[in-house]
Amino acid sequence: MKIYTKTGDQGETKLLYGDTVPKDSLAPEAYGSVDELVASLGLIRAEEKLPIEIKEVLLRIQRELFIVGAELATAKENRDKLKAKKGDPLILVNPISNKSIFDNNKFLFLKIRDIYSSGIYDYDSRLIFMPLSTAQSYFKLENHISGWMIFDKSINFNELDLPFYQVNLKDRHAELFRWINTQKWPIIFIFSLIALVSYFNLLSSINILFYEKRFNLAIMKTYGMSNKKLTFMFTLQGILLALIGSILGIILSYLIVILQEKFHIISLPENIYFVSYLPMTFSIKESFYILGVSIVSSIIFSSFALSQILSINPSRILKN
Predict the structure, then answer these.
(1) How many CA atoms lie less than 13 Å away from 50 in the CB half-sphere?
(2) What span, in angstroms and rounded, lies between the C-alpha atoms of 249 and 191?
(3) Where exactly are the structural domains of the chain?
(4) From the CB of residue 139, how many other CB atoms can be counted at a distance below 10 Å?
(5) What pTM did the predictor assign?
(6) How does pLDDT run across 203-257, given as a tens digit for each residue?
(7) List of long-range contacts for 111-114, beta carbons under 8 Å, 24+ apart
(8) How far apart, in whole angstroms, are the C-alpha atoms of residue 177 and residue 168?
(9) Which architecture characterizes domain 1-81 according to CATH?
(10) What phi-psi label fits residue 48: left (phi over 0), alpha (psi between -120 and 50 degrees) or beta?
């Protein structure tokens, strides 16, 4: 087997898309070091006692390094060509094939029919869809499969014989769930502070409203209207005020969720946050919960404000 071209290279090596650089330049040194790191991580992953969670993390790092290596092995002006487009040819190399690299049967030549985006970087960067029969023929699996994804929660395999093992969604994306759990409490704390401020604003608004109506309260009380009726009437106004504000806030949040899910206004770097945009969902249950809390809060705040005003003698209010 020939391992030389007989053309000579004058101390230069070719990059992707035909560019040449000196062999002692930084580019070959950089992507060569990345290749060595990928190989070292592969040796670590081959350790049988290594937990599956760590193996998944190492595999993700290897995939990222493959992309880094491809970009390092490409001239800066040609890096945009690395992005696959619809209709581009795609060549798959079987890593477990014992055939020579010069044997075309080691390669599977495909064409990109379409490019999907699930919004989850880990899936978009590692999965391709092709006919099952094509994959079985290429990998010599006949009618067998090497693994499967189950989306039916009622199906569970408690025991599997080696070399098979079961990995659930949380195990496969352990880093993502750890990040979510880490961010959960700060987010709850921040939104609790926002809610607390809004309730103080509600209390202030009700106090100002009742203070402005103190002369009307005094007159109605002078004409014989009982404190019970006054409390009911003005508490109803407080509830109405809270309902209007809550409903407007819920409508606004619903519109924001729709716009975010459709246009992805708030985007995120996929390689850091695992998703390409900030996912949002609208919950009717939580909306009713907010309405309930607002009504209860308005009743409490209205009662507190009214108790202070009604305790003042009407004559004192009218004299002032």
Answers:
(1) 15
(2) 14
(3) 1-81, 84-166, 174-319
(4) 16
(5) 0.56
(6) 787 777 777 888 887 888 888 888 888 888 888 888 888 889 889 989 999 999 9
(7) 111/87, 112/84, 112/85, 112/86, 112/87, 112/88, 113/86, 114/86
(8) 12
(9) Up-down Bundle (1.20)
(10) alpha
